[in-house]
């Protein structure tokens, strides 16, 4: 389990990212202002990790992009609900701007009524095109296993800022669109991604064979 002491904020640095910038709901309603504590900020890592990695701490709803000199940018994220959160070590195997979205077979099996438009003959049988109403939002990082298999896990955007800081998704980590665009530009293909365990969590739901 992640030692929470590793992430020790030194206060908002002069170069804190995006402080006070509204997160737009993108068609879902009026602009929604993220609480100040959910805005990205630069923090100092007590023990540090190598620069150029993504670390998600589900117990704090925090995603860290690590930088040199034991520094990191901390973003607030939504995470997978219940046993749909999947800890492990992955890497960014693909990146996509305004990605097309298709629910996984597992999602469709769990809730077929919700995804009937994705069945053969449905409106989105080939996937929902990218856009402001797409659940993956403005950008997506696709997480692969070290052996090169797609896990169906994503770090992606959302057009619903009210889902940030809660366990709501089918397993993916989500940021508001403005912030995922910024993160997307920082994280290269092949970057290491560590999803740290949830406290007191049971075994995760199996997503790949």
How are the elements arranged and paired?
Elements: E1 7-8, E2 41-45, E3 54-57, E4 62-67, E5 71-76, E6 79-80, E7 88-97, H1 105-110, E8 139-144, E9 150-158, E10 167-169, E11 173-176, H2 177-186, E12 192-195
Parallel strand pairs: 3-12, 6-10, 9-11
Antiparallel strand pairs: 1-2, 2-5, 3-4, 4-5, 7-8, 7-12, 8-9
- Outline: globular
Radius of gyration: 17 Å
Helix content: under 10%
Structural class: mainly beta
Q: How many beta-strand runs? A: 12
Domains (count): 1
Give the termini separation: 24 Å
For the record, the CATH class is Mainly Beta
Give the full name of the CATH homologous superfamily.
L,D-transpeptidase catalytic domain-like
**Major β-sheet annotation:** 10 strands, mixed
Structure annotation, total helices: 2
State mean pLDDT (0 to 100 scale).
Answer: 80
Annotation keywords:
8% helix, disordered C terminus, two-stranded parallel sheet, 2 helices, mainly beta, 10-stranded mixed β-sheet, globular, single chain, L,D-transpeptidase catalytic domain-like, 209 residues
Structure description:
The protein is mainly beta and 209 residues long. It has a single domain, classed as L,D-transpeptidase catalytic domain-like (Beta Barrel). Helix content is 8%, strand content 29%. It has two helices and twelve strands. A ten-stranded mixed β-sheet has the order 1-2-5-4-3-12-7-8-9-11, covered by helices on one side. The chain has a two-stranded parallel sheet with strand order 6-10. The two termini are 24 Å apart. The relative contact order is 0.23.
């Amino acid at each position: 389990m992640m030692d929470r002491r590793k992430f020790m904020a030194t206060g908002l640095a002069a170069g804190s990212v995006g402080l006070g910038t509204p997160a737009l709901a993108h068609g879902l309603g009026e602009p929604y202002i993220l609480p100040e504590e959910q805005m990205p900020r630069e923090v100092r890592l007590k023990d540090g990790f190598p620069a150029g990695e993504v670390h998600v701490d589900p117990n704090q709803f925090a995603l860290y992009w690590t930088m040199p000199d034991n520094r990191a940018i901390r973003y607030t994220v939504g995470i997978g609900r219940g046993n749909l959160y999947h800890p492990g070590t992955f890497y960014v195997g693909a990146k996509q701007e305004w990605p097309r979205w298709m629910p996984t077979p597992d999602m469709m099996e769990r809730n077929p009524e919700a995804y009937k438009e994705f069945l053969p003959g449905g409106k989105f049988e080939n996937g929902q095109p990218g856009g402001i109403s797409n659940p993956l939002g403005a950008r997506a990082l696709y997480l692969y296993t070290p052996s090169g298999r797609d896990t169906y896990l994503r770090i992606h955007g959302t057009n619903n800022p009210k889902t940030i800081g809660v366990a709501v998704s089918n397993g993916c980590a989500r940021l508001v669109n403005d912030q995922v665009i910024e993160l997307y530009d920082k994280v290269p293909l092949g970057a290491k991604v560590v999803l740290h365990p949830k406290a007191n969590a049971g075994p995760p739901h199996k997503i790949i064979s």
